[in-house]
Amino acid sequence: MVRAWESRLNIALSHILNQVGVGSRPEQADGAGRKDVLIYHQGLKIVLEGSYDRNDAEMDARKRVEQLSADIAIAIHYPSNFPQDLTEYEIRKKLFNTKLAAKIILPDDMSGTLWEIIYMDRAVAESFGDWFDVDLNSLSSLIKEVAQFIINESELKKVEIAVEELVQRVVDNITGQYTSDKIAENIYEDLYKLYGFSIGDPKEIKEALFAQATLAVLLGSVYYESIRHLYRLPSILQLSSQYGYKNGLEEAVHQILKINYELIFDLVGKLLKSLPPHENDFKAILQLANDISTKRALLRRDLGGKVYHKVVGSWALKKGLATYYTQLPSAYLLLYLAKPTIGKVADFACGSGTLLVAAYSAQNSQHRLNLWKKGEEREPNEIEQEFHRNFINNCYAFDVLGYALQITILNLALHSPSTKIDKMLPSSTIPLGYRERDNFTSLGSLELSRSVLRLHEIGIGATRVGMRGSKITSLSEIAKFGPYDLIVMNPPFSRTTGRGGREGGGLFGFIGDLNERSLIKKDYESLSEEIKYNLIRVAEQLLNDTSINYILQEKDFSLFRQIWQAGEGLLFLYLANLKIADDGKICFVLPRSFISGVSWFLARSLILHYYHIEYIIVSYDSNEYNFSESSVFAECMFIAKKQNNTNLDENTNFIMLLKKPSTSIDAIALADVISAKEETYYETGSSKALVKKISRKNLIENCDNWGRFVYLPENTLLDQLDNLSAGIIRIKNKEIKVPTVRFNEIIATIGVDRKRFSDTFRPLHESIPGAVPMLLGGDESQRIAMAVAPNAYAIPLNDNAREMFDKKGSIFLVPDRIRITTAHVTALLANRKTIANIFYSVRINYENINKYKALCLWLNTTWGIMSILANRQETHGGFISMKMTQWRMMSILDIHKLDQNKVDKLAEVFDNYKHHSLARIPQQYVADSYSLSERYRIDNEFLEVFGVTAEKEELLQLYNPLSQAIIQWVGDS
Q1: How many angstroms separate the CA atoms of 818 and 838, rounded?
Q2: Where are the alpha helices (DSSP H) in 793-839?
Q3: 530 Cβ neighbours under 8 A, 6+ residues apart
Q4: Which residues make Cβ contacts (< 8 Å) with residue 306, sequence separation at least 6?
């Protein structure tokens, strides 16, 4: 077959890219050779070098960068199935439906400014990542996003450090002034105090106020430098040479306000009046702003958001205002999987707007693809400006801080700074705090979940913002803005509890006035109770006639009907459900306990009842379990589409990230391949993922804990759990049936939770009259062997304590938390009746010492360990918890259905190993180790009680994937 000339394919590719809004043209170098595709994007020159030969494409792309004829080059490898006899139309049609291999080539030296890289002949090409398989839509998105990598992570880090050092210097200088308290009060009025609402004493948070003011001035200056060329305005440094640094900035603000952009610069102008005239500080601010503004690609990497969350505020402010923000690659993965179309977009706690920035990019990509499919041919600049106006005018960003809203709008505006937005924006600042004059509190955006009548009664106003100004609008009017087609959120996670004792911790901990904080918490708890009642009714409808409807009725499972430990995140999820349109989508970043936590059960029921859950995403990237930049806790993300009719056979895609996307390009490529929705392993660039499909029917039956579907990142282990739940252990071709039961059905009592224990007993290291035996703590030395002895005593603190010990004390102990990397065993058996503060003492019906031994052995076999892992609630990687309710719901060996002979034999196996010092759990499965041999003996002797002997090689087929999965989860250290 004679292949079509590469130039024909390149011309066709250029035509298609123009169709989807990427301005390009075919280019022929030096009047000879094949035509390649030239793209100008964000001031950068990007060349696509297409060839049938992968090496030629990469070599030519590399040459383009090395010769500085292109800032970025993308090598395109065409498949060979394009015959020469195809017409131009047929080539375009075939290209559009073909996956292409693409590789990005960047200049190696990224440490200087963009101008240095372009104009100084010192660039050496390097490839970014590996080859990506992309369709034309993904290639379009990749081109738009690739410019951000003209500055690599080290350059971004340098800028972050420079900003951090600058802010700290200015804060120190202002704090050292005797008038600093007054300065703080003035800035507080600008940044926080809305309509008389207070969140605390400005003097208590003055360093945070100074940091925020400095950053607002810096970012405002950066934005001025990014748009001044449109209006032929002088640079701030030029004005500073005439007026001085502070006055020069004031003059720049004065000139830009004559034109537009009040949202950004009105606040900057106010802050300039409050900040002291330290010329050296303003000189440093303006010089850094000028430097940053030359790095346009860096601005699109959410620099404003990064520095906003990194450098401003005290610990209390950052925690209290929940300034976790989504990692940019994670945000792109979430939104590109969602495939949002044109419509109203909302974020009720937008922060710096990272998720809205990702929504902008993903929606833009979908919009251009739809235009192409409709056959609409328009100028790329026209498409860009029309989309930009549409998105900004339909972007409903909400926050308690006008300052955060400013950064959100700034981040979005930088996507198309030449596009003017004249009308009032639908974004709003809603107050959080206490209003003394009429004794009212406001909970920020959560007020929108109230009844309209309540909003009328309290008369809270919100500030709607626009480039040309702002106006106060009643919350009852704001509440009418919906419904929304897309709601994105990484909501505050704070909860009403907070026993850590740190100053400023807990819910609304940033509010220094304890009386005000108490009033706000009381209002929050009242709203929470109202929402809980509504959620219970939804759960009752969902679970009616299911096998787990008992958890909404029985006393033992009452914690499933509580939401207080879930915190604010659950309330924002409830708000999103109220405001989303039919067929609209919600995209959330939440604690990983959303899928497994007892307090999130009602939230899972809510989403299941009203939505098709399209994706749930968790990370098994060792020590990268979070999706928020500043969080160390395990998180998850999900996408759900609201629909009136649900199908029990519809599937949810659980995505287990083995390697998280490290860039937005990685994320876009991964989202593209996963969109095929096949249950398999995916790898693109540096990203790796495993996808598991779960039916809606299965989600409902396991609504108590969806963590079972992703308990370890290995498909054979996930299948093993299905067998275990049915009472089947599979070893190669052998099938062993063991009776299993919900643990709750054989529990008589289960011990005391941590809070109640501390209220009831006081630990002692020596016995005194009236003290009872206790296992104190749960460090590694107490988890080495299955047999244990009490190591302390507990003195009762009230009359009920002795009765509690008599009723709940036991020799059988199961953990309420485990660090999997240091635990050697799971359950323990004490030599006498005891209580514990880190373990639950469990008493079973029809008590028998050998039955306790059999249960303890089961929970320390591989299948018992797998069951515990499947029912866990994950806090951070290998640090997991098992609440009493989760123990009750877990399938366990039904020792009451075993004949006494089997029970006695299992007890004998337990006695054989009860004092053995086992290795840490991950090490027990390492091949060719002594610890694996002991693990094999315990498991095999358990199986022999049921009449089956397993060869070591047979059990290795279970141990090897288990070892690999645990290493993937917690690392190999």
Answers
A1: 9
A2: 799-808
A3: none
A4: 156, 160, 629
Instruction: Locate 786 and state its tokens.
Output: 């299955």
Give the HSE-up count for residue 26: Cα atoms under 13 Å, Cβ half-sphere. 18
DSSP symbols for 666-702: HHHHHHHHHTT--SSEEEETTEEEEEEEEEHHHHHHT
Average pLDDT over residues 822-843: 95
Mean pLDDT, residues 889-899 taken together:
96
* Per-residue confidence (pLDDT) for residue 501, from 0 to 100: 40
Given this model, what pLDDT does residue 117 score? 34
Residue 567's closest CA among 608, 519, 600, 610? Answer: 600
Which of 528, 539, 609, 535 lies closest to 564 in space, CA to CA? 528
Compute CA distances 754 → 557, 839, 852, whole Å. Answer: 18, 9, 23
Nearest of 308, 334, 304, 301 to residue 323 by alpha carbon: 308
Domain parsing of the chain, residue ranges: 6-150, 151-313, 735-970
For the chain, first and last CA: distance in Å? Answer: 55
CA 512 – CA 503 distance, rounded (Å): 10
pLDDT (tens digit per residue) in 493-520: 755 444 334 444 566 766 667 787 788 8
Kindly list the distances between the CA atom of residue 277 and the CA atoms of 169, 246, 273, in Å, as whole numbers in the listed order.
14, 7, 9
Please tell me the distance from the alpha carbon of residue 615 to that of residue 139, in angstroms, as a whole number.
23
pLDDT of 247: 95
The string of pLDDT tens digits covering residues 456-507 is: 665 566 666 554 556 677 777 788 888 999 999 999 875 544 433 444 456 6
Nearest-angstrom CA–CA distance, 267 and 409: 13
Q: What is the pLDDT of residues 403-425, one digit of tens each?
A: 778 778 878 877 777 677 666 56
As a whole number of angstroms, the distance between CA 749 and CA 814 comes to 12
Q: What are 708's two structure tokens?
A: 């079972």
**Whether the Cβ atoms of residue 352 and residue 411 lie closer than 8 Å to each other:** yes
Instruction: Tell me the angle at which helices 153-175 and 180-191 cross, rounded to the nearest 10 degrees.
Output: 130
pLDDT in tens, 301-312: 566 666 766 665
The DSSP output letter for 638 is: E
What's the confidence (pLDDT) of residue 430? Answer: 80
pTM value is 0.84
Question: What is the residue type of 78?
Answer: Y
The residue whose two tokens read 């693990």 is 935
Please name the residue that has the structure tokens 């989202």: 671
| Whole-number percent of the chain with pLDDT over 90 | 48
Task: Tell me which residue has tokens 């010990």.
Answer: 805
* Cα–Cα distance measured from residue 786 to residue 69, given in angstroms and rounded to the nearest whole number: 69
pLDDT of residue 747: 96
User: What was the pLDDT predicted at 604?
Assistant: 98
Of the candidates 944, 950, 966, 970, the residue with the CA atom closest to the CA atom of residue 875: 970
Position 132 confidence tier, pLDDT thresholds 50, 70, 90: confident
Using CB atoms within 10 Å of the CB of residue 964, give its burial: 0 to 12 exposed, 13 to 18 middle, 19+ buried: middle
State both tokens at 593. 């306990």
Helical spans, DSSP H, in 294-394: 296-299, 303-311, 315-320, 328-338, 354-374, 380-393
Q: What angle do CA 822, 828, 829 make, to 5 degrees?
A: 155
Cβ atoms of 921 and 820 closer than 8 Å: yes
* Average pLDDT along the chain: 84
Please state which architecture CATH assigns to domain 735-970.
Answer: Alpha-Beta Complex (3.90)
Question: Residue 326 gets which letter from DSSP?
Answer: B
SS3 letters across 107-129: ECCCCCCHHHHHHCCCCCEEEEE
- What is the CA 362 to chain-centroid distance, rounded? 17
Residue found by looking up tokens 């141990």 in the block: 959
Nearest to 616 by CA among 688, 693, 684: 693
pLDDT grade for 131, boundaries at 50, 70 and 90: confident
Beta strands (DSSP E) in 685-799 are: 687-695, 728-731, 734-737, 740-742, 747-750, 761-764, 772-775, 787-788, 792-796
